[in-house]
Each structure stands twice: as C-alpha cells, then as structure tokens.
Design brief:
Blueprint lengths: L2 H13 L1 H11 L15 H5 L9 H5 L9 H4 L6 E2 L1 H7 L1 H8 L13 E2 L6 H4 L9 E3 L5 E3 L4 H7 L6 H7 L22 H6 L27 H4 L9 H5 L31 H24 L3 E3 L7 E3 L23 H14 L4 H4 L1 H15 L14
Antiparallel strand pairs: 1-2, 3-4, 5-6
Helix pairs in contact: 6-7, 14-15, 14-17, 15-17
Bound molecules: heme C (5 copies).
One heme C binds next to helix 6, helix 8, helix 9 and helix 12.
Length: about 375
C-alpha cells in the first residue's frame, strides 16, 4: 500500500462524520440520562478519543474497508444518496439497515444510504451481526457458515446467479444475436460465492454438468477469517507459509501449487494453480473473440477497467484500443451462448483470489465455458483436464 492511500484513509477518518458516530456508538457506553446521573458524553467528545485507545483501529484504518476515496464508496457522490439496491455493501448504514440493527426489517435495505461512509466498526459489530450464522446468495440459496465469515459473505457474494442468467436468456436461440441484450454483470470480489461453489450457484453453471460445492482445503483454512486477518483483511502470509513453501511474501500466493494435474494442458504441472487458472481464462477470452467474430458477426474486445467491459473491436485488430472503450461502443451483439461465457469470464476475473477461494470450481466453470463455445468454434481442450 502506498503512503498516499494510507493518508487518505486517516484523513477520511478525521473527516467522516458517520464514522465518528459509528465509533462513538462502539466505544461510549450507553447511558440513560436520568436526573441523578451525569450528562452523557457528547459525540464530539467521543470523536476526540485517541484512536490508539480503540482496539484494531490502526488495522482497520489500513484496510480497503476504510478507503474513503475508493470508487466503491464514491461512485454515488454526485447523486447525493446510495440507492437501496447498492447501499447494503457500499456503506455502513446500508449494511446496518440490511441486518435490521437499525430497528427496520432484517434482510432488506429500507432506506437509501447517505454518501460519504465506508465500512466502519458498526457495520460488522452490532446487535444483529453477532447472531449472523447463515448467508443467502443472489440465487436464493441459503448456506450456514460460521459467525464472522457470514458477515464477509453477505457483501462478498456477487449480484447474479445461474437462475438469473437463465431467466434473462429464456426463449432465445443459443446462437442468435439479440440486440436488446445488455451485458449481465455478476459484480465484483464475490469471494464468498466462489468459495461456496455449487452451494451458491452465482456463476453460470451449464445444464447437465456437476460442480463442486464449498472449498475443500485443510482445516481451519476454509473460511474468510481464517485465511484473512480480521481487520486489515490481508491474507496471513506466515500461516500459509507453514505448509506452502512457495509463499514468502504477500506477492507470492500465486505460486502455490499442490495438485498434480496439468489442468490447462500446457505441459507444466508445477506452475502455480493461479497460473493454470489464468491460462484457462486467457483461452476462454480467445474462444469468445473467435465466436464473436465468426458466429455473432461482430468482433469483441475486453477491458477489465472500463464498464461495461465488453466493446466492439471496431478496427478488428483483436486489441482493446482506447478509442473503442466508450460506453456507446459497448458490445451489443450478444447471443445467449456468448453471454453465458462472458458472464463467467468477468465474474471469475473480478475475484483475484479465485485460485484460493475455490480452484476446482473456478477450473470447472472455465472448462465448461470454453467447451460450450467449442461446440461452434475451434477451442482446443484436447490436453486440458476438467477437475
Ligand atoms: C452484495 C453486495 C454488493 C451490492 C448489493 C452491490 N455491490 Fe458494488 N461492489 C461490491 C463489492 C464487494 C465491491 C468491491 C470490489 C473490489 O474490491 O474490487 C464492489 C465494487 C463496486 C464498484 C467499484 C468497482 C471498481 O472497479 O472499483 C462499483 C462502481 C460498484 N460496486 C457499483 C455498484 C452499484 C451501482 C450497485 C447497485 C446497483 C452495487 N455496486 C451493489 C459489492 C456489492
Ligand atoms: C468488515 C467487518 C469488520 C469491521 C469493519 C470491523 N470488524 Fe472487528 N471483527 C470482525 C470480525 C469478523 C471479528 C471476529 C469476531 C466475531 O466473530 O464477531 C472481529 C473482532 C473484533 C474484536 C474482538 C477481537 C478478538 O480477538 O476477539 C474487536 C475488539 C473488534 N473486532 C473491534 C473492531 C473495531 C474497533 C473496529 C473499527 C475500528 C472493527 N472491529 C471493525 C469484523 C470487523
Ligand atoms: C458491508 C459490506 C462488506 C463487508 C461486511 C465486508 N466487505 Fe470486504 N469489501 C467491501 C467493499 C465495498 C470493498 C471495496 C473497498 C475498496 O475498494 O476500497 C471491500 C474490499 C475487500 C477486500 C479488498 C479487495 C480489493 O479489491 O483490494 C478484501 C480482501 C475484503 N474486502 C475482505 C473482506 C473480509 C475478509 C470481510 C469479513 C471480515 C469483508 N471483506 C467484509 C464490502 C464489504
Ligand atoms: C484458503 C485461504 C482463503 C480463504 C478461505 C479466503 N481467502 Fe480471500 N484470498 C486468499 C488469497 C490467497 C487471495 C489472493 C491475495 C493476493 O493475491 O494478494 C485472496 C483474495 C481475496 C480478495 C481479493 C483481494 C484483492 O487484492 O483484490 C478478496 C476480496 C477476498 N479474498 C475475500 C475473501 C472472503 C470474503 C472470503 C470468505 C468468503 C475469503 N476471501 C476466503 C485466500 C483466502
Ligand atoms: C496445514 C497445512 C496448510 C496450510 C496452513 C495452508 N494450506 Fe493450502 N493446502 C494444503 C494442502 C494439503 C492442499 C492440497 C489439498 C487441499 O486442497 O486441501 C492445499 C491446497 C491449497 C491451494 C490449491 C493448490 C492447488 O494446487 O490446487 C491453495 C491456493 C492454497 N492451499 C492456499 C493456501 C493459503 C492462501 C493458505 C494460507 C492462508 C494456506 N493454503 C494454508 C495445506 C495447507
């Protein structure tokens, strides 16, 4: 992390009114103002409480959850409020509202949230979060998970599902272009959905195929809060290094390799599992490009940075050129088959930890997406292996 990022966060703490309020609610004991008791401390006084007195403050302040300037917290600034369908995961009051800890109905966001908040202590620490032991995914599937992990998965779960994709494409012929279709975006950093695999069904799962469920890794390293630190949310390098000798620092997780199968058929079964996945992902993109050009009749390019990610390759050079990455030039020649593959491609790519969250599920989804396009265009899977 750069110093700039860190100083923004600290400045954000001093400036963030909701955050100060949030901390005040955490650290100031509730006091009923009776005539005999002294007046309750004002929130201004609580706001000046030295942050060193707050447990885990520094850890939290260095985390992405406190990154006031992040797009995930500033995207709605010009509108003034965060709409109910976004507030749950993008603001502390929205999450508190969703849990029902503000006295409103649980499981639904009742009010738009104010802009300018981050994920403060009260989001994760309130009367309702302590009892949270299950998660409902966008597919409607509900899964029991340990306390703590349930908090993380309530936000890191994505916004789509096999069912939603199926419904959006119902009644259309697999390879017919439908100009009314807009890209279906499963959203970002959906670690919980990938970790739960078929128990969450947030990826597009192809009919007739079987998919693995929850991540099978050695105990206790099977949940968010066992691999990630609670408040910085950084992955615990030392814990991993105990078993995976490839891990030496925070940049080396992608070297981890235990399985012996050469999933991508590259001839190298010792490369990190993250690289096996990366190569399969590249192969999926290549198959999508071939399919778009030859079956949908309009070449496509992808950019991970620019919404809505898929654009027309106007000059046909196969590369995402800057002038192509404009919203009006977004890809509009979707066929159901291409949409299913593109949905999966972005969903997995937008979780940089997919290789750890559920490598088997990730490889199954990639393999099946390539194989499905492969029924129409050349996509070499002859040496690849579906786990
Ligand atoms: C189920 C939780 C959830 C909901 C609901 C949700 N998001 Fe997100 N969103 C996330 C998470 C988690 C991230 C963080 C991604 C990351 O760290 O890269 C994110 C990131 C973003 C970003 C930043 C992307 C970037 O490139 O940095 C934008 C913009 C965004 N969401 C928009 C929205 C909008 C608009 C809505 C409402 C229609 C919405 N989100 C609803 C969970 C959610
Ligand atoms: C993204 C969610 C999240 C945020 C934000 C967060 N915490 Fe936590 N914190 C947790 C989880 C999960 C635990 C584990 C205990 C549990 O299951 O509730 C925890 C545990 C704790 C504990 C108990 C530690 C222990 O060893 O038992 C304290 C104290 C604490 N948090 C304080 C804070 C403070 C103060 C803030 C704000 C500066 C904060 N937390 C912000 C998720 C969060
Ligand atoms: C209230 C919703 C919410 C909860 C609860 C939550 N997160 Fe997040 N998380 C987000 C958002 C939004 C972002 C993006 C913040 C940013 O871009 O700075 C994020 C970012 C992250 C990142 C960094 C992603 C990146 O792109 O760098 C990690 C890692 C993470 N969260 C892990 C966790 C863990 C572990 C827990 C549980 C202890 C948790 N989160 C709980 C919403 C949440
Ligand atoms: C087996 C250990 C493990 C488990 C379990 C785990 N993670 Fe991760 N997570 C990782 C690793 C390793 C990375 C990649 C970190 C890197 O490359 O810097 C990662 C990355 C992430 C990222 C992306 C961070 C970034 O830099 O963009 C998020 C968000 C995240 N994890 C959240 C979660 C959540 C939420 C859970 C629970 C549903 C979870 N993780 C469970 C190990 C784990
Ligand atoms: C007690 C030993 C142990 C610890 C600690 C441990 N792992 Fe593992 N890990 C294993 C074993 C054994 C496997 C292979 C079998 C399995 O998946 O459970 C594995 C598999 C993996 C894989 C898949 C590798 C492949 O080739 O498919 C990843 C990624 C991974 N671990 C990441 C992590 C991360 C990240 C941490 C630290 C948060 C961690 N592990 C901690 C023992 C461990």
């Amino acid at each position: 992390m750069t110093n700039r990022r860190k100083s923004t966060r600290v400045a954000a703490f001093l400036a963030g009114a909701w955050l100060v309020l949030g901390l005040a609610m955490e650290v100031v004991p509730a006091q009923a103002p009776t005539p005999s008791s002294p007046p309750p401390p004002s929130s201004a006084a609580a706001g000046t409480l030295p942050t060193t007195a707050v447990p885990f403050f520094a850890e939290w302040a260095s985390s992405p959850h406190a990154e006031h300037a992040a797009l995930a917290f500033t995207h709605w600034n010009s509108g003034g409020t965060i709409p109910t369908e976004c507030a749950k995961c993008h603001s502390a009051p929205g999450f508190v509202d969703f849990l029902g800890a503000d006295g409103t109905a649980p499981g639904v966001v009742d009010h738009p949230a104010p802009v300018g908040t981050v994920i403060t202590c009260v989001a994760c620490h309130n009367d309702k979060s302590v009892d949270l032991t299950s998660v409902t995914f966008p597919s409607g599937l509900n899964v029991a998970v340990p306390r703590g992990d349930a908090i993380c998965m309530t936000c890191h779960q994505g916004l789509g599902s096999t069912e939603a994709v199926t419904k959006a494409l119902a009644g259309m012929s697999d390879d017919a272009v439908n100009p009314k279709l807009e890209f279906i975006d499963a959203h970002y950093a959906a670690a919980g959905a990938i970790l739960m695999g078929a128990q969450a069904r947030v990826a597009y799962q192809y009919p007739g195929k079987t998919y693995v469920g929850r991540l099978g890794h050695v105990a206790p390293f099977t949940g968010c809060t066992s691999c990630h630190q609670l408040h910085t949310v950084a992955v615990k390098v030392e814990a991993c290094a105990g078993c995976h000798k490839e891990v030496t620092d925070a940049a080396s997780f992608h070297f981890i390799r235990v399985s012996k199968t050469d999933y991508d058929g590259s001839g190298d079964a010792n490369e990190g599992i993250a690289d096996e996945i990366g190569h399969m992902s590249d192969r999926l993109y290549a198959a999508m490009q071939t399919y778009a050009k030859t079956v949908a009749g309009k070449p496509v390019v992808f950019s991970a940075e620019v919404y809505p990610y898929f654009f027309v390759d106007t000059n046909g050079n196969g590369i995402a050129d800057k002038d192509e990455l404009r919203f009006p030039n977004r890809y509009k020649s979707w066929t159901p088959r291409l949409m299913e593959a593109a949905y999966n491609y972005l969903f997995l790519l937008k979780d940089p930890g997919a290789f750890a969250h559920n490598p088997i599920y990730t490889l199954q989804i990639l393999y099946d997406s390539i194989a499905d396009l492969g029924t129409k265009v050349p996509a070499d899977l002859s040496k690849a292996k579906r786990p």
